[in-house]
Amino acid sequence: MLSEFDLIARFKKILPQSLFRDWTVSIGDDCAVRRLSRNRYELLTQDLLLEDVHFLSGSLRHWEEIGWKSLAVNLSDLAAMGGRPVGAVIGLALPSAAKTSEAEALYRGLAAAARRYACPVVGGDTNASKGAWMIAISMLGETRHRPLLRSAARSGDSLWVSGELGTAALGWRAIQRQDRSALAAPFRRRHALPEPRLAWGEKLAQSGMVGAMIDVSDGLAGDLAHLEKASKVGFEVELENLPRHRDFSKLCSRLDVSEVEMQLAGGEDYELLFTVQAGLEKKFQKFAAVHGLKVTCIGNAVKNRGIHWLQGGRNVKKSFRGFSHYVDFKGFREKLEPSGFTSGKNFTGCPAMWEIGASPKTRRGFASTYYFR
Description:
Layout: H1 4-14, E1 32-37, E2 40-50, H2 60-80, E3 84-95, H3 100-116, E4 121-129, E5 134-143, E6 158-162, H4 167-176, H5 185-192, H6 198-207, E7 210-216, H7 220-231, E8 234-238, H8 248-255, H9 259-265, E9 271-276, H10 281-290, E10 295-302, E11 307-311, E12 314-315, E13 327-328, H11 329-336, H12 353-356, E14 364-365
Parallel strand pairs: 3-4, 8-11
Antiparallel strand pairs: 1-2, 2-5, 3-5, 6-9, 6-10, 7-9, 8-10, 11-12, 13-14
Helix pairs in contact: 2-3, 2-6, 4-5, 4-8
């Protein structure tokens, strides 16, 4: 199986390019973009979630969390463009064993997220599934500012990230280890109920100082690679500057996991990763302080392509990667284990999909941290 992005590239070649003319941005960013007027842009995005791939069935409370998260991951795509939601439609396929109470709990979670982020759910479709639950959400958004694209980073720009990195991934690991301590509670919650940075994304677009932006869903290493490819620049990242929860190191030690792997490869942070135009750093810091934006400078864009990880100013001779949507687990394990990773208990990149998420027939699955419990 090709990687997700190789597959998308092939699909794009098949589709008639002439029909893209009304779209400022089509395939290849967090959202498709259509310009409606001089200062108004329409944004369109979609996410598909599958049972046994992105989530496992569970208690009614668990279904509510799945509903919240289903909407939140779409909203995060809008945040990455500096947009706000206009409306969403929900596609839901239910297996014959599904209970009405489960579907209602799912929608209670959707409704809670819709209220929190002012996103009307205006329609959708339901159908029967011969196998698993399937949730497909298409979302329409808008922005009255220039949409922030992955391709707008320039050499000399500074690199920033909102919030904290690694909190959700560490929360997943706490869930996996059945750690219900008070120490693990905020991490577990962050994994179950992500908070898309819509308000912050809008402020960043309004600032006029931000170049490129993407939301961190596949881990810092994976999503920074998308910026690197789209903008055709390299990045230097100082690992010591990565923001973290105040109890992050303590919980990493308790669970015996690598701090840097949690922050770079864990995924599901749903923070905003962006560049600030060269020379505007001090002005941007003042802007962020005035508007209450919790942001951290973690590096710079450079001419030399690739991602260069630094520790105390020196290059770290190790590569990191985020998780991939399509993984051949035999090859994936062989590729990672020589670098110090192992499957199962101590594997700190993607969770142990071959244990609880991948098909036993094909050994293929979706390397994600969603809801495995």
